[in-house]
C-alpha cells in the first residue's frame, strides 16, 4: 500500500466515525473506558502484590515459629493434660473411630482423661468430652508426618486472616503490622503451640470474619456461603466461643437488613443484602445440625453435648458448678471479680509488649474514631448503605465489638475461675479469651501506623522531607529497645515457667527415650486416680488397644492380673521416686520389664542397705488377710545390709531366715482368695524415733492350678517416718537424696 492510499483510507475512516450514530461512538468510548479500568486494576494489583507476598511470608514465619515452639518448648506437651484428650481423639479419627472399645481389658485401667464411659448392649465404649473438629485438624499434621505441623498451619492461617482483617479495617500496611503484633502475644504463641481447640476455633472464626467482610463488600453469595461454613464449623468446634465471636457480625447483619428494608423496601438492594445474609445463615445452620447429629450419635441425645455428659454442671450460667471433685457456687459477684482479674491479666501480661501493646491498641481505637470524625453523628445512619458494601469503619467497629462480646460472654462461664484456681492460666494464659487477640492485634497495628504517620506528617511540616525521614528512622531505632524490653517482660515469665516443667518432664520420660515397643503393655502410676494420660499424657495407646503398646493405669492386684490376661503382651512397669508436683519438680523415673513367675511357690531374696544411725530393725510380711512380724538374727545381717529370704506359696507367704515374733495370725500369713498383694516391709529405727522403711509390693494370684503366679519385680519404695510409702514419700533427705546406706537388691526364682 502506498503512502497516498493509506492517507486516503485513514481520512475515510475518520469521516465514517464522524457520521456514525452516537450509540456507536458511545459503545466505543465505553469499551475504551473498560480497557482503561482493567489496565488500572492490573497496575493496582501489581502495586498490591509485594505487600501480599510480604503478608504470606510473615504468616508462614508465624507458622514456623509456632512449630518450633511446639517441638522445642513443648516436646512432651504442656502440663494441661487436655492435650492428650485431643490427640487420643485425633488418633481415633485417623482409624475411623468415634469410640474406644476396651473389650476384655478392664476399662478402669485404660480410660483416658476426660473420656465418657458408656455401656451399650453389654459393651463398654468410651468417647471424648470434646468435639472432633480440633482433633480432625490435628490429624492433618499426623498425615503430613508430624502432629506439630498442624499447629504451625493453624497459626499461619490465623495470621493470614488477621492480615486480611487489618487491611479491611484500615489498610494493607496496618494488616502487615498486625501479623507480628499477633505473633508477639505470649497467649498466641503458647496456646497455638499446644494441642487445644482454642487456636483452631479462632482460625475458623477469623476465616468467617474475613469471608463475611468480603461478602459484604462484593455482595458475593459464594463468599457468604464460605463465611457461613466457617462459623458453622467453628460452632461444631467450640459452640459458645463461636457464638460470642459471631455476635457483632450478627448485629451488623441485622442492622444492614433493617436499614436496607427501611430505605427501599423489597428493592434489588434489599434483596442483595438478604441473599448474602441467607448465604451465610444457611451453611451455619446446617453445621449446627451436624453438631446436634454428632451429639445424637455419641450421647444418644442431640441436645446433650459430650461436654455435659461428662460433667453436667460444668458449663455456662450461674449456680452450682462442678467438675470431678471440685465444686463452687458461681455467682454474678464472683463472675465480676474473675472478669476484672482476667481483663487486667490479659492486657498487662498476655498481649504483645504488655501495657505498651495495650496502649498502642487504644491509640488504634482512637485513630479509627478520628478517621470517622466527619462521618459520625446524626447523619451516620443516613450514610450507612448496606447495598454499597461494608466500609472500613464498619469493619473496625465490628472487630472492636468482639472485645466486649468475648469478655462479657466468658464472664457467664465459670471455666476462667477454674483455670485461675488450678494454675493453668498462669502457665498458658487466659486461653478462653483467645479470640480477643484478633482485634487487639489489628488495633495495635493501627496505633503504630497512626503514630508513625502522625510523626512523619509533623516532621515534614517543620523540615524537609529527607530530614523528616531520617528523624523518623532515628526515632524508630531509639524506640525499638523500649518495645523489645516490654516484649521480653511479658514473654520471659511464662516461657521460663513452661521451660522448667519441660525439663522436669524430660527427666520423667527419660526411660522412654530411644525405646520402641512391640506388642507391649506398660503399667503407669496413678497420682491423679484411674485416668490414662493424666498426668502422663505423653504416654498414649493411640486410636485403640491393638497397637504396638497399650498403657494401663496401675491398680489393684485383681485388676492388674486381669489386664495382663486380657492383653497377653510383654509387660513393663513405669514408676517414679519422688513427689509428683505437676512437673514443677523433677522425679526419678524407671521403666522395668515385668515377668510373671508361675510355679508351686516363688522364693525371693531381698537385700537392703542399713541406713546410717539405725539402731533396730523389724520386718513384716503383710497380705490383705493379716501380717507376721519378724526380728533379724545375726545370720541375716552384715555391717551394711540385711538379707530377707521369703517365700510366696499358693496359700501363704512367710519369711524363711528370720525369727518369728508375732502377728495377726501365724508365722505363715494367709493369702486372700484370687488376686492379692504380698508386701515385705523392712523398717530401721534410729535414735530419737527417726525411721527409714523399705516396702516391696508383689502382685500375686494364688489360684493358678494349685500353684502361684507372681508379677516380678515388685514395686519398691523407700520412705521416712512412715511405713506406708507412697510415691511422694520415696524422696529421702532434704534435697531428694537417699539417706546414707540405703540400697536395694532383689532376686526371685520359681520352686516346682
UniProtKB/TrEMBL annotation:
<feature type="domain" description="Glycosyltransferase RgtA/B/C/D-like">
    <location>
        <begin position="147"/>
        <end position="256"/>
    </location>
</feature>
<dbReference type="InterPro" id="IPR057168">
    <property type="entry name" value="DUF7846"/>
</dbReference>
<dbReference type="Pfam" id="PF13231">
    <property type="entry name" value="PMT_2"/>
</dbReference>
<keyword id="KW-1133">Transmembrane helix</keyword>
<feature type="transmembrane region" description="Helical">
    <location>
        <begin position="350"/>
        <end position="370"/>
    </location>
</feature>
<feature type="transmembrane region" description="Helical">
    <location>
        <begin position="273"/>
        <end position="297"/>
    </location>
</feature>
<keyword id="KW-1003">Cell membrane</keyword>
<feature type="domain" description="DUF7846">
    <location>
        <begin position="520"/>
        <end position="697"/>
    </location>
</feature>
<feature type="transmembrane region" description="Helical">
    <location>
        <begin position="147"/>
        <end position="165"/>
    </location>
</feature>
<keyword id="KW-0472">Membrane</keyword>
<feature type="transmembrane region" description="Helical">
    <location>
        <begin position="240"/>
        <end position="261"/>
    </location>
</feature>
<dbReference type="GO" id="GO:0005886">
    <property type="term" value="C:plasma membrane"/>
</dbReference>
<dbReference type="GO" id="GO:0016763">
    <property type="term" value="F:pentosyltransferase activity"/>
</dbReference>
<keyword id="KW-0808">Transferase</keyword>
<keyword id="KW-0812">Transmembrane</keyword>
<feature type="transmembrane region" description="Helical">
    <location>
        <begin position="470"/>
        <end position="491"/>
    </location>
</feature>
<dbReference type="GO" id="GO:0008610">
    <property type="term" value="P:lipid biosynthetic process"/>
</dbReference>
<feature type="transmembrane region" description="Helical">
    <location>
        <begin position="391"/>
        <end position="414"/>
    </location>
</feature>
<feature type="transmembrane region" description="Helical">
    <location>
        <begin position="177"/>
        <end position="199"/>
    </location>
</feature>
<feature type="transmembrane region" description="Helical">
    <location>
        <begin position="53"/>
        <end position="71"/>
    </location>
</feature>
<keyword id="KW-0328">Glycosyltransferase</keyword>
<dbReference type="InterPro" id="IPR038731">
    <property type="entry name" value="RgtA/B/C-like"/>
</dbReference>
<dbReference type="Pfam" id="PF25230">
    <property type="entry name" value="DUF7846"/>
</dbReference>
<feature type="transmembrane region" description="Helical">
    <location>
        <begin position="434"/>
        <end position="458"/>
    </location>
</feature>
<dbReference type="InterPro" id="IPR050297">
    <property type="entry name" value="LipidA_mod_glycosyltrf_83"/>
</dbReference>
<protein>
    <submittedName>
        <fullName>Dolichyl-phosphate-mannose-protein mannosyltransferase</fullName>
    </submittedName>
</protein>
Amino acid at each position: 500500500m502506498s503512502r497516498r492510499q493509506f492517507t486516503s483510507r485513514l481520512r475515510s475512516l475518520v469521516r465514517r466515525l464522524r457520521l456514525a450514530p452516537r450509540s456507536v461512538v458511545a459503545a466505543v468510548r465505553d469499551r475504551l473506558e473498560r480497557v482503561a479500568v482493567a489496565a488500572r486494576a492490573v497496575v493496582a494489583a501489581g502495586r498490591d502484590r509485594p505487600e501480599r507476598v510480604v503478608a504470606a511470608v510473615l504468616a508462614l514465619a508465624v507458622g514456623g515459629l509456632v512449630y518450633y515452639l511446639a517441638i522445642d518448648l513443648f516436646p512432651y506437651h504442656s502440663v494441661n493434660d487436655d492435650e492428650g484428650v485431643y490427640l487420643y481423639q485425633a488418633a481415633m479419627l485417623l482409624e475411623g473411630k468415634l469410640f474406644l472399645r476396651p473389650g476384655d481389658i478392664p476399662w478402669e485401667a485404660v480410660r483416658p482423661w476426660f473420656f465418657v464411659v458408656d455401656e451399650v448392649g453389654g459393651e463398654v465404649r468410651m468417647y471424648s468430652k470434646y468435639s472432633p473438629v480440633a482433633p480432625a485438624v490435628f490429624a492433618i499434621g499426623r498425615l503430613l508426618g508430624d502432629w506439630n505441623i498442624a499447629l504451625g498451619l493453624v497459626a499461619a492461617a490465623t495470621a493470614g486472616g488477621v492480615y486480611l482483617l487489618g487491611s479491611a479495617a484500615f489498610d494493607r500496611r496496618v494488616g502487615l503490622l498486625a501479623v507480628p503484633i499477633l505473633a508477639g502475644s505470649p497467649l498466641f504463641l503458647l496456646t497455638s503451640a499446644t494441642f487445644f481447640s482454642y487456636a483452631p476455633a479462632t482460625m475458623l472464626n477469623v476465616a468467617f470474619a474475613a469471608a463475611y467482610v468480603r461478602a459484604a463488600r462484593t455482595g458475593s453469595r459464594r463468599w457468604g456461603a464460605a463465611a457461613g461454613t466457617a462459623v458453622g464449623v467453628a460452632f461444631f468446634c467450640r459452640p459458645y466461643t463461636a457464638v460470642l465471636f459471631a455476635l457483632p457480625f450478627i448485629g451488623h447483619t441485622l442492622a444492614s437488613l433493617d436499614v436496607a428494608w427501611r430505605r427501599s423496601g423489597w428493592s434489588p438492594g434489599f434483596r442483595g443484602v438478604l441473599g448474602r445474609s441467607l448465604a451465610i445463615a444457611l451453611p451455619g445452620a446446617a453445621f449446627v445440625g451436624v453438631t446436634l447429629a454428632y451429639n445424637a450419635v455419641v450421647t444418644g441425645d442431640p441436645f446433650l453435648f459430650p461436654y455435659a455428659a461428662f460433667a453436667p454442671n460444668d458449663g455456662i450460667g450461674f449456680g452450682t458448678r462442678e467438675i470431678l471433685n471440685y465444686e463452687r457456687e458461681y455467682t454474678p459477684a464472683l463472675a465480676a471479680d474473675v472478669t476484672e482479674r482476667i481483663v487486667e491479666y490479659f492486657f498487662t501480661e498476655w498481649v504483645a509488649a504488655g501495657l505498651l501493646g495495650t496502649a498502642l491498641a487504644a491509640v488504634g481505637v482512637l485513630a479509627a474514631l478520628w478517621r470517622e470524625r466527619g462521618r459520625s453523628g446524626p447523619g451516620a445512619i443516613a450514610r450507612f448503605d448496606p447495598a454499597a458494601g461494608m466500609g472500613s469503619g464498619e469493619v473496625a467497629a465490628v472487630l472492636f465489638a468482639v472485645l466486649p462480646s468475648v469478655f462479657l460472654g466468658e464472664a457467664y462461664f465459670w471455666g476462667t475461675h477454674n483455670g485461675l484456681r488450678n494454675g493453668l492460666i498462669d502457665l498458658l494464659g487466659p486461653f478462653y479469651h483467645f479470640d480477643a487477640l484478633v482485634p487487639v492485634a489489628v488495633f495495635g497495628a493501627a496505633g503504630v501506623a497512626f503514630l508513625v504517620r502522625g510523626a512523619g506528617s509533623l516532621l515534614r511540616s517543620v523540615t524537609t522531607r529527607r530530614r523528616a525521614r531520617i528523624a523518623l528512622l532515628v526515632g524508630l531505632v531509639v524506640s525499638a529497645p523500649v518495645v523489645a524490653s516490654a516484649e521480653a517482660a511479658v514473654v520471659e515469665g511464662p516461657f521460663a515457667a513452661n521451660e522448667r516443667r519441660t525439663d522436669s518432664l524430660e527427666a520423667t520420660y527419660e526411660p522412654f527415650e530411644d525405646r520402641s515397643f512391640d506388642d507391649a503393655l506398660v503399667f503407669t502410676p496413678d497420682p491423679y486416680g484411674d485416668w490414662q494420660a493424666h498426668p502422663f499424657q505423653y504416654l498414649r495407646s493411640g486410636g485403640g488397644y491393638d497397637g504396638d503398646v497399650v498403657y494401663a493405669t496401675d491398680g489393684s492386684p485383681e485388676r492388674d492380673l486381669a489386664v495382663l490376661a486380657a492383653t497377653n503382651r510383654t509387660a513393663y512397669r513405669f514408676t517414679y521416686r519422688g513427689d509428683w508436683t505437676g512437673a514443677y519438680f523433677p522425679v526419678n523415673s524407671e521403666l522395668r520389664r515385668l515377668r510373671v513367675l508361675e510355679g508351686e511357690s516363688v522364693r525371693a531374696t531381698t537385700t537392703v542397705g542399713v541406713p546410717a544411725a539405725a539402731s533396730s530393725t523389724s520386718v513384716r510380711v503383710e497380705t490383705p488377710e493379716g501380717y507376721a512380724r519378724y526380728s533379724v538374727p545375726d545370720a541375716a545381717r552384715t555391717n551394711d545390709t540385711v538379707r530377707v529370704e521369703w517365700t510366696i506359696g499358693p496359700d501363704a507367704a512367710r519369711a524363711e531366715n528370720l525369727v518369728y515374733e508375732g502377728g495377726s495370725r501365724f508365722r505363715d500369713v494367709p493369702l486372700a482368695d484370687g488376686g492379692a498383694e504380698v508386701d515385705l516391709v523392712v523398717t530401721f529405727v534410729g535414735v530419737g524415733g527417726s525411721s527409714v522403711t523399705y516396702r516391696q509390693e508383689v502382685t500375686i494370684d494364688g489360684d493358678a492350678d494349685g500353684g502361684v503366679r507372681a508379677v516380678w519385680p515388685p514395686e519398691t519404695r523407700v520412705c521416712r517416718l512412715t511405713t506406708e510409702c507412697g510415691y511422694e514419700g520415696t524422696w529421702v533427705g532434704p534435697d531428694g537424696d537417699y539417706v546414707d546406706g540405703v540400697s536395694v537388691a532383689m532376686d526371685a526364682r520359681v520352686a516346682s
